[in-house]
Amino acid sequence: MSSTLGKNIKAYRKNKGLTQEELANLLNITPQAISKWESESGLPDVSMLIPLAKILGVSTDALLGYDTLSANAEITDRVREEVIGLSQDKDRPSKTLKICEYLATQTNLNPGNFDLISDYIRNVADLSMYADKKLEGCYQDEIEKIEEIYADAIRKGAYLIGHCADRELVYKAHFSLAWIYIHKEDFDNAKAHIDVLPSLSAGEGGIIKERIDISKAYFEGGMDAVHDVVSKNAVLLFNATSSMLLTISELYGWWDEPQKAYEICDWCEEILKAYATRKESIDMFRYLRCRRSVAFFKMVAAKRSGDTKKAEELYSNFAKQISEEDLTDEEKKKVMELLHNDINYYSKYS
Questions:
Q1: What is the largest CA-CA distance in the chain?
Q2: Residue 265: which of 291, 235, 238, 239 has the closest Cα?
Q3: Residues 78-83: contacts with CB under 8 Å, at least 24 apart
Q4: Which has the closest alpha carbon to 37: 59, 54, 12, 16?
Q5: Under 8 Å CB-to-CB from 174, ≥6 apart: which residues?
Q6: Cα 152 to Cα 173: distance, rounded to the nearest angstrom
Q7: Which of 252, 250, 251, 242 lies closest to 290 in space, CA to CA?
Q8: Is 42 exposed, middle or buried (0-12, 13-18, 19+ CB in 10 A)?
Q9: Which CA distances in Å does 245 have to 22, 60, 301?
Q10: How many Cα atoms are found within 13 Å in the side-chain-facing hemisphere of 267?
Q11: Closest Cα to residue 27, out of 42, 44, 39, 15?
Q12: Can you give the pLDDT at residue 1?
């Protein structure tokens, strides 16, 4: 128990953004005592557990490590399998609403399962996109239901942020909640969630942990260690870059002048293709999705301008590029299927 307790105190303290000294001041004890607890060279007195749990915003059971992790994992797997089944519906807005309603119930039944809460608010973020009048304007006859789902997701997201020790899930929650607020046109609350997310600007001047971690790897383990760290960080870099490129091309394709959209999408495409020269540095499925998206948004720009011939030309050029690219037959088939799905779905806006 002591091992679990020490690690949990440290994890929950960091999640709250407290230093050892700040936590010690709140408990009216010395920082050395906190250090002993977290290094597992000592245990807090039983009388300290309740005030400690209150300050860290968790239950005493969670602090002591009594969470039913294995049971949670089984529930998460079962629920996700059901979501996969619901995802087979061809009607995107309809299936998204069904998934959100299902996950709303499951998160009510399993209030301590942060993985399910994260899945829920991520799907509600998708729902908010379909509901946004500037985009698709779906669910107009179900506005009250949609608003109830928003309120439920926001409440559960706030609970996750305040109580979950997994920093990655916390960031995902902020990200999803920001999207919900954006589509609700509540930009102040959106900004509040965006401002706490990790930022590239935090590494201004190249002061980022991944950069120095590569150098540390060399001095600690030589070039073999460097190879491992570079491979890991290259995938992280591609994931971050590709997400930004997808968003940039989407906004230009849907909303900017066609010529500007073509230029920016070409730029995004060239960056993605440059990454793909090192297959070990990319998530291949993400790469295929992004390539199809950038191509699709160029076609959107052409269709918006009424230039159907240009859109057809762009489609033919992309199909030719993919046929000649260093991809497996299955990957070539997959990227074209993804593109056709988007074309078929968004044809209703033509």
A1: 76
A2: 291
A3: 79/103, 79/106, 79/116, 79/119, 80/119, 83/119
A4: 12
A5: 161, 193, 194, 196, 197
A6: 13
A7: 242
A8: middle
A9: 40, 44, 16
A10: 14
A11: 44
A12: 40
> Which residues are CB-neighbours of 6 under 8 A, at least 6 positions away?
37, 38, 39, 40
Contact indicator for 102, 132 with CB cutoff of 8 Å: no
Name the residue type at position 69: L
Token match 């090192």: residue? 278
Distance CA 156, CA 121 (A): 8
Long-range (24+ apart) CB contacts under 8 A made by 97-106 are: 97/127, 97/139, 97/142, 99/123, 100/124, 100/127, 100/149, 100/153, 101/149, 103/79, 104/149, 104/152, 104/153, 106/75, 106/79
- Token code pair at residue 262: 């073509």
Q: How many CA atoms lie within 13 A of 19 on its CB side?
A: 6
Mean per-residue pLDDT pooled into runs of 10, the chain (350 residues): 71 85 92 90 86 84 65 84 92 95 93 92 96 92 95 95 88 95 94 89 74 88 92 89 95 96 97 92 92 96 94 96 94 95 78
CA dihedral 175, 178, 182, 188 (to 10 degrees): -150
Q: How many Å apart are CA 237 and CA 210, to the nearest integer?
A: 10
